[in-house]
From TrEMBL:
PROSITE patterns named among the record's database cross-references: HELICASE_ATP_BIND_1, HELICASE_CTER, Q_MOTIF
DEAD-box RNA helicase Q domain sequence ranges: 90-119
Keyword Transmembrane: no
Domain Helicase C-terminal: 329-484
Annotated Basic and acidic residues bias: 12-26
Stretches assigned to the Helicase ATP-binding domain: 124-300
Enzyme Commission numbers on file: 3.6.4.13
Residue segments, region Disordered: 1-55
The entry's keywords: ATP-binding, Helicase, Hydrolase, Nucleotide-binding, RNA-binding
GO molecular function, one term: RNA helicase activity
Native species: Rubroshorea leprosula
PANTHER family: ATP-DEPENDENT RNA HELICASE DBP3
Listed name of the protein: RNA helicase
Keyword Nucleotide-binding among record annotations: yes
Length: 495
DNA sequence: AAAAAAC
């Protein structure tokens, strides 16, 4: 009951309604609360229902935390091992944060209260004995705040040495996380540094640099590894190690080797290092591996894959008669209609595809920018900055931006190509699909995804995606009909 | 017939 009152006060804001970001906290008000009986079942029964029996945790110590004070948490399942009790934090004040950090949260970040995942995970992160944590939560639900706040809070401001390291899959994500960290930690005086590849022109080789003194380091695996082996990044004081997009960081075809190497090197030198693994996705294979990577006594938060889709983002599919028709759909339907709907990201499968689409749209008179990993570093930074500053409306991207990229004005995502497994092109890459969808609808905002489909393979891949996430993706009957597209945007709440 | 990082 207290929740309701609090939410009501939270909603008072001076911003005009149209601009006001929709928060998960608001979304929760509209959900039907979980039936009381469901949360009062015995623990054993609860464990079965939650599907934790196949998780590699100490059976004797297994314990389910239901967080009864947060009924809207019904779709995040918490499993703790050991006897440490955790209480969900309904307010940031419940977390013993410093005044400086609270100021960062309220004044700089303009947060009111923890989101679901923050309420559950932060006590787990911040309570001794600082157990490892594997945390899954919806796209745009505020995972970054969990680990950034975790790092800022656990760092001792008086120790002038690296104490927290965060590893991300792309330089864009590392930069973004560093920006969040600096904003949130503005009043704390805690120092930070980005360990990301630089253009050779304006960078000093690491061998000639002084050792890193920053208290928090956020970067990409290659550069972190390089700094460590060059003995410029000392890890003896590191007490918290974060993997953002952890499923990808520990996937066989991701950064598994680098990540394990870094983790082992740190844990060998720094004895009590807490490891945090965050992502919106953990497929079964990665999940099973990840559970073996963390220490025996750890905490877990997972979401069922059927519940991962974002309710606020409506998905559509449209069949086109030939591959080339996709350009026309983008141009004549989506871009012309989408002009005033916020920003758009168009995902393509290959760098070459990105370049071809870019040329076509520019020839047709559209202003678009394109980002791929092969661009020069400063060029990448410029394109991302322009998009984040709202100077560009439409961004073509490979999967370099599929994960984590946070731009609240993105309302439209176009899958120009569906994400597929590179070794089995008839198999969708479900995780990438979900991450791409998650670029729209940040923090519960409205959004739409258009999947452009050509041929039997696309149809099959799309069907598999629908089955996997138990979602029906509405078909737009006629790719040439402006009316159909308008109807779609209207039903997505964008028009 | 991939993208990412970085060698």
């Amino acid at each position: 009951m207290a929740e309701t009152v609090e939410n009501a006060t939270v909603k008072v804001e001076s911003k005009p309604v149209a601009e006001q970001p929709k928060r998960w906290a608001d979304e929760a008000d509209e959900e039907t609360p979980e039936e009381p009986s469901a949360s009062s079942t015995s623990e054993d029964k609860g464990a079965e229902e939650l599907g934790v029996e196949n998780l590699a945790i100490d059976e004797e110590k297994k314990k389910i935390n239901k967080f009864l004070d947060e009924p809207e948490d019904s779709n995040i399942k918490a499993v703790t091992t050991g006897d440490t009790p955790y209480t969900s934090a309904s307010r940031f004040e419940d977390l013993n944060l410093s005044e400086e950090l609270l100021k960062g949260l309220y004044v700089e970040m303009k947060f009111h209260k923890p989101s679901k995942i923050q309420a559950i995970s932060l006590p787990m992160i911040l309570t001794p004995p600082y157990k490892d944590l594997i945390a899954q939560a919806h796209n745009g639900s505020g995972k970054t705040t969990c680990f950034v706040l975790g790092m800022l809070s656990r760092v001792d401001p008086n120790v002038k040495a690296p104490q927290a390291i965060c590893i991300c899959p792309t330089r864009e994500l590392a930069i973004q996380n560093l920006e969040v960290l600096r904003k949130m930690g503005k009043h704390t005086g805690i120092t930070s540094e980005g360990a990301i590849p630089m253009d050779s022109t304006n960078s000093i080789p690491i061998s000639k640099r002084a050792p890193i003194m920053a208290q928090i380091v956020i970067g990409t695996p290659g550069t972190i590894k390089k700094w460590m082996s060059a003995k410029k990044l000392g890890v003896s004081s590191v007490k918290i190690l974060v993997f953002d997009e952890a499923d990808h960081m520990l996937a066989e075809d991701g950064f598994k080797d680098d990540s394990l190497r870094i983790m082992k090197d740190i844990e060998r030198i720094s004895s009590h290092c807490q490891v945090l693994l965050f992502s919106a996705t953990f497929n079964e294979i990665v999940k099973n591996f990840v559970l073996r990577v963390v220490k025996r006594d750890h905490n877990q938060l997972f979401v069922k894959k059927e519940e991962l889709k974002l309710e606020s983002v409506k998905q559509f599919k449209v069949y086109v008669p030939e591959e080339l028709s996709k350009v026309l759909v983008v141009k004549e339907r989506i871009l012309e209609l989408g002009e005033n709907l916020g920003q758009t990201i168009i995902f393509v499968r290959t760098r070459n595809g990105a370049s071809l689409l870019h040329k076509s749209l520019v020839e047709l008179g559209y202003e678009v920018t394109t980002i791929v990993g092969s661009l020069r570093q400063e060029e990448r930074d410029k394109i991302v900055k322009e998009f984040k500053d709202g100077l560009t409306q439409v961004l073509i991207s490979t999967d370099v931006l599929a994960r984590g990229f946070d731009q609240q004005q993105v309302n439209l995502v176009i899958n120009y190509d569906l994400p597929i497994k590179h070794d089995r092109p008839s198999e969708p890459d479900y995780e990438v699909y979900l991450h791409r969808v998650g670029r729209a609808g940040r923090f519960g905002r409205k959004g739409a995804v258009f999947n452009l489909l050509f041929g039997d393979r696309d149809q099959m891949v799309m069907e598999k995606i629908e089955t996997h996430f138990s979602v029906t993706v509405e078909e737009i009957p006629d790719w040439k009909s402006e009316k159909d597209f308008k109807g779609a945007l209207r039903s997505a709440g964008l028009l």
